[in-house]
Structures are given as C-alpha cells and as structure tokens.
UniProtKB/TrEMBL annotation, chains A, B:
This is 2-dehydro-3-deoxygalactonokinase. InterPro entries: DGOK, DGOK_C. Pfam families: DGOK. It comes from Pseudogemmobacter lacusdianii.
Length: 295, 295
C-alpha cells in the first residue's frame, strides 16, 4: 500500500569515503526518506548496499539511481578533465546492476593535469551551488577530511586544489600518543592567534603541534588546546590555498561547524564568506542530471 | 648454574612510546642479553614487564635498573629544565618496586619553558654522544616518530625543538584511504626535488600529499611515490628546524635508514652530518649514571 502511494521516482546516492548515503525522491520531487551505511569499499558491496537501503521504497518498476563520489576506477569510468562544467551535459552510462529494480548511473568526477588532482563527489555540490546561484563566479571551498578549493567561472570549474589537512586533524586527535592532549571540541581563546601564527610561519606547524602536546603533558592549563590545534591546521590550509582566497569572496559548502571555523579564519584575513548547506547542494546538483535519465 | 656464572650487574631499560627494551649488563660491562616487550602503558605494567623480561638473569641479589623514557608523571618525577646537562649529576631516586630483586631508578627527562617542549628518552642518547665525544659543541638531531633537534654547548642542552613529522609519515602511510598510494620503501628519484620543493614552499605540503595520492589513483606512474612522500615530509621538517641546522654541522642519532634520509636532505642544503648508532648512545649515556647507583 505505502509503496503504491509513494513510489520512488529516483534516488540520489553518494559515497563519501566508505560511507554511502541515500535520498529517495518522490514523484513531486519531495524527499521520501533517507538512509545510510558504512564500510562500503567495493563496487560489489556498493550495489548490495544500494539495494538494501532502497528496498523498502522499491516496487516492480526500475528506479534510477544517480550515484556520486564512487571511485571511477571501479567501473573504468573516465574522469572529466578541467576546465569543464562540474557535471556532464550528456553521456551518463548505466551500470549493469545485478538487480533489475535499480538502474545505477555513476556520476563522473573531475581530474586536473597540473598540479595532478582529482575530485569525486564535490563536483555535485559545486553543480548544486551553481544551480542555486547561476551567475556565481569566484571561489568555492568544500572543507572536510579532504578540503577542496575550486575556481568557478562561466559555469565551469577552472582549477582546483585538494589538501589533506582535515585528515591530519583526525590523525592527531585519534593517535593514542596525542589524543589525550586535545579537548577536541574546545572553543576557548587561541584559535585566531594560532591561525595567524601558522599563516605567517607555516613551516613550524609540526613543532607547534608537539608543543601543544607538551603543554598538556606538563600540566599547563590548556583548555583551548583543541581550539589552537584547529587554528594551527586551518592556518596551514589557508597558507597553502592563498592563491585561491586572496582578494576573493568565498562560498563555503560543508559541515556547519567546520564551515564556521573556516569563515572565522578567513574573516581574520579580510575575506568575506557565505555558507551553503552541503546536502542541499548535493541534491540540487544531482537534480540537474535527472532530465538525462528520466523522460 | 648459568645465573651464578653470569650475574647481571645492572640493567639499561628504555621505554619508547609503549615499547620497553632491556639490555642486561654483566660484571665486566658486557651485554649479557637483550629483551623487549610492547604495549607497556602504565607504571604497573612497566614494573611487571621489567620483572618478566629480566627474570632469567636475576639471582637473589638486588639488581639496579636505569630506566629512561618513562613519563615522569607516572611517579610525579620532576623533569629538569634546560639549559642543563642531559643527565643529572646526582639525586636519582629509587622507585618502591614491588619485587625486591629490582631497584628501579627512573631517569628524569628534560623540559623547556619557551617554546614549551619536553624530552623523555632522547636525553640519554645525547648524554651518550657527549660521553663518546666530550668536546662536542653544536647540533644533535634525533629522528623518529618525534624528531628532536638539540643545541648542545659546554656539555649542556641549551635548547631543543620536537616535531611530529615522523608521526605524520606513519599516519599517511597507515590510513586506509591513502596507504595504497605510497610504496613505503620506494627509493626512486624525486626525493631530492621533493625536499627542495617543500623547503621553499612548506605551506603547500598538505596539497602536495594529496596530489601524490591523486597521481596513484589516476594510474600515473608513481614508482617513486614513497620517496617523494618522504621528501615532502622531511622538507617540512627541515623548513621548521632551519634555525637549528643552518650553518651547522649536525650529528644524527637514530635508525640508520632514517638518518640516511636526513643526511641526504641536509647535504642538499650544504650541511655536513655524522651518524651515531642510537642503541650505543643510549647505553653509553645510561652508563654514565652507573656510579650513582653502584658503589
């Protein structure tokens, strides 16, 4: 009954690292439901997980799935070379899925020749930002375990840069040797000073991180250790991405708290920012592809 | 029988992270044996591990143990503030060990007020280098998961700097998202160029690491990815420690392969190096304390 009354029209899926998330979209474009699963690490486990998560919304008809963020290598899918639009205007290929109720269309990521770089997933959020704001020309920053900076102009991604500074945050706070030294969510003073220190002397970041740890071991008050840790790592990120944000207005897309940190750090450099909601951008971006797969 | 013929005179012990190593020293100063154990993470587990590892060399007499590298906090032991000699001239305190066959003397580490830093273990190797080379005046670098640079003058540690760049190497090559991209022991070309690139633009290291990963994902030949990874991280280390090595001759103490990498990178900057063997330095350093505990 429920199924007959609210059939899925299409499914927006994204693999982020090994985490798969689904938004099931109804006939009126409404979100019928969401689901997610971790530890998806191969094309076979991905297809099985998609079916498992979508099953309660499936009837007898075939439902198309737009799948972002999966490694193109799993299906020998070519990445698209920048400069280009974030998403392809045509040519999406359907996977030969094992179950006839799903028609899976992987969304190709982007590649850059020099410096060598790649993007698998963030292109949908950039497309979403452009769908929400068609005249946008400037810089989009997508913070996360990998942070991406993209120059967008005339509807195309012109160039981009990815760094692992978000992953570094996770490694430092996850290592048994150091994690006790940082109150992860501390919001005390020190963030701004730490950003400035690393922006002006980025080469000292590895020693500053140890010094923070030493303060904790020596019992010095370090209520703001977490804030300073964030500041040091974000300062290094900003130092490395200076050609992207200098003299620009920056659109941030990602986790609200993380985007807030970036906004504060960029404001210190006189850079204005706007924050867009990541999931809304993903859905808006994938929605632009629907006409290619549904007639 | 064996015990009676070769009794232990003293034991040199060191905790490095959570790994405990022992060298059992005989009446003539000869090394009777070695033993090691992992996962030593508290004062209680340390005392139990010492007894377990030493047991086959123990008779009825009490054997003194010089223990380096254990967190002073475990016994509320004060660290010594630089500038000072690497090891104390007197005042070693005996732990109240649970077993009367061992007399455990923890060796205090060093602390620095500004920038805040600490050293727990490397001070014995510095003392050993000075014992082997009493007139030494200059810079000692001790590479490892934590790399320490120390200014040594007139027999004292004047200042030092610790960084986590060795730990960063471990995190990058151990993370499931990246480890496939780096042939850890690759010795191809690219090391020297990577060192130079990061020395001149240290703020770009987080993006360069991702770019290396992207090359691997995109199937570009990356036989030297491991060598370049090492070069990028070592370049950042050298950039942050420039005040220590610039215009100096540097003594390296540590793992032979790692010291070889540092020597190559420093040679590119016109810096001469000499390598001393870490275990020999530890033993030589702890040996200078033996007159304080054995009469």
């Amino acid at each position: 009954m429920g199924k007959a009354e609210s059939p899925a029209r299409w499914i927006a899926a994204e693999l982020n690292g090994s985490a798969l998330t689904l938004q099931v979209i109804g006939l009126q474009g409404e979100v019928l439901g969401e689901a997610s699963e971790r530890h998806v690490v191969s094309s076979a486990s991905l297809e099985a997980a998609l079916l498992r998560l979508a099953e309660s919304w499936l009837g007898t008809a075939t439902v198309p799935v737009l799948l972002a963020g999966a490694p193109g290598q799993w299906w020998e899918q070519e990445l698209r070379a920048v400069p280009c639009t974030p998403l392809p205007a045509s040519g999406l290929a359907r996977l030969t899925a094992s179950d006839p109720r799903l028609a899976i269309y992987p969304v190709p990521g982007l590649r850059q020749a020099r410096p060598v770089d790649l993007m698998q997933g963030d292109e949908t959020r950039i497309a979403g930002a452009l769908a929400l704001w068609p005249q946008f020309d400037g810089v989009i920053c997508l913070p996360g375990a990998e942070t991406r900076w993209a120059h967008v102009s005339a509807g195309e991604v012109v160039s981009f840069q990815t760094s692992i500074s978000g992953a570094l945050m996770g490694w430092v706070t996850g290592d048994p040797a150091y994690r006790g030294s940082f109150a992860r969510h501390a919001e005390g003073d020190g963030f701004e000073i730490a950003v400035s220190e690393t922006l002006s002397r980025p080469e000292r970041v590895a020693a500053r991180l140890y010094s923070l740890h030493a303060e904790a071991v020596l019992g010095a008050p370090s209520a703001a250790a977490g804030a300073r840790l964030k500041g040091y790592i974000l300062g290094m990120e900003l130092a490395g991405a200076r050609p992207y944000w200098l003299g620009q207005e920056v659109v941030l897309i990602g986790d609200a708290a993380l985007c807030g940190d970036y906004a504060r750090a960029l404001a210190l450099q006189g850079v204005q920012t706007r924050v867009l909601e990541a999931k809304a951008c993903s859905l808006a971006g994938l929605s632009t592809l629907v006409p290619q797969i549904l007639r």
